[in-house]
């Protein structure tokens, strides 16, 4: 089972929007050196919505090849088309990814029965570990705990990323399915608390800029050391909040550019961080001791 800090890795780009392959490999090496426990490649933070299929698969292959078995690689393969999600999941398996992360279908707003059948179809079609991903604030659809419980125990479905940020709901989810699948936080601000309640780790945006500290927070929480986890997390409270001051991954890509890790590229319809927001994100980086 994959545990700890799982970075939802950005996809570095040049100002013209082309993928910066050397920068991508450099980020992977940095995360391994800093103690990140696993990498999520081409999740929604990796701008999966604006990468074409060839680019999507190439990024997964590059991350897998660079990591070279040193830490697990989870590939983002979700789509609002079940057929496309199956194709991406198969491609990720063929590329050597250790698992896949599948966001709920966005915009078309399936029913709970539709969500159940969507994930069952993918699990039955591709024999590889799969992690469900519920982020209703971005997709427009909310997969209920009851639907997750229906899917728990399905061969190949090994976990869920819960990005609701609702600790009571997360506690209920862990009680319902925690013995049958891993529950991961998808909300940086509350991740350490959910881990103390039984979650297995955090699929994190903040880890992009603070990998060592986020890994330490997750490790402390997994060890049951609430005081240490709380103290470490206090350094990141500004980042947890302000990396979402504009739509993710706009702020985190700007922060990484300021840290000299990536160039200033992002794809439309997302735009570079506004001048009004830049001092706020800079202050959060300073609070965390990163600049």
How are the SSEs ordered, and which strands pair?
Layout: E1 4-8, H1 21-34, E2 38-41, H2 53-67, E3 73-76, H3 82-95, E4 99-103, H4 112-125, E5 130-134, H5 136-139, H6 145-151, E6 157-162, H7 167-177, E7 182-185, H8 191-196, E8 201-204, H9 211-222, H10 226-234, H11 237-242, H12 250-258, H13 278-287
Parallel strand pairs: 1-2, 1-8, 2-3, 3-4, 4-5, 5-6, 6-7, 7-8
Helix pairs in contact: 1-2, 2-3, 3-4, 4-6, 6-7, 9-10, 12-13
N-end to C-end Cα span: 34 Å
**What oligomeric arrangement do these chains adopt?**
single chain
Number of strands: 8
Query: Into which percent range does the helicity of residues fall?
Result: 40-55%
Task: Tell me the series of helices and strands, N- to C-terminal.
Answer: EHEHEHEHEHHEHEHEHHHHH
Strand order of the largest sheet: 1-2-3-4-5-6-7-8
**Shape summary:** globular
Q: Spans with pLDDT under 50 lasting ≥5 residues?
A: none
Indicate the mean pLDDT: 97
According to CATH, the homologous superfamily is: Aldolase class I
* Cα-based radius of gyration, to the nearest Å: 18 Å
């Amino acid at each position: 089972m994959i545990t700890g800090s799982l970075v939802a890795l950005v996809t570095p780009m040049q100002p013209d929007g082309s993928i910066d392959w050397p920068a991508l490999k450099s980020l992977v090496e940095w995360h391994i050196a800093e103690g990140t426990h696993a990498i999520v490649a081409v999740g929604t933070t990796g701008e999966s919505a604006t990468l074409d299929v060839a680019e999507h698969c190439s990024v997964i292959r590059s991350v897998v090849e660079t990591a070279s078995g040193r830490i697990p690689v989870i590939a983002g393969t979700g789509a609002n088309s079940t057929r496309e999600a199956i194709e991406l999941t198969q491609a990720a398996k063929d590329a050597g990814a250790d698992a896949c992360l599948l966001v709920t279908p966005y915009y078309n707003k399936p029913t709970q029965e539709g969500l159940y059948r969507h994930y069952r179809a993918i699990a039955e079609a591709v024999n590889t570990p799969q992690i469900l991903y519920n982020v209703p604030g971005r997709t427009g659809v909310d997969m209920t705990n009851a639907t997750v419980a229906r899917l728990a125990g399905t061969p190949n479905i090994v976990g869920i990323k819960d990005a609701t940020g609702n600790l009571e709901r997360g506690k209920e989810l862990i009680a319902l399915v925690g013995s049958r699948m891993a529950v991961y936080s998808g909300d940086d601000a509350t991740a350490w608390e959910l881990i103390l309640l039984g979650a297995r780790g955090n699929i994190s945006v903040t880890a992009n800029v603070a990998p060592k500290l986020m890994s330490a927070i997750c490790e402390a929480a997994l060890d049951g050391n609430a005081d240490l986890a709380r103290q470490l997390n206090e350094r990141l409270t500004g980042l947890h909040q302000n990396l979402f001051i504009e739509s993710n991954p706009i702020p985190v890509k700007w922060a990484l550019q300021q840290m000299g890790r990536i160039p200033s590229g992002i794809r439309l319809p997302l735009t570079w961080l506004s001048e009004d927001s830049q001092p706020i994100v800079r202050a959060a980086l300073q609070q965390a001791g990163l600049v």
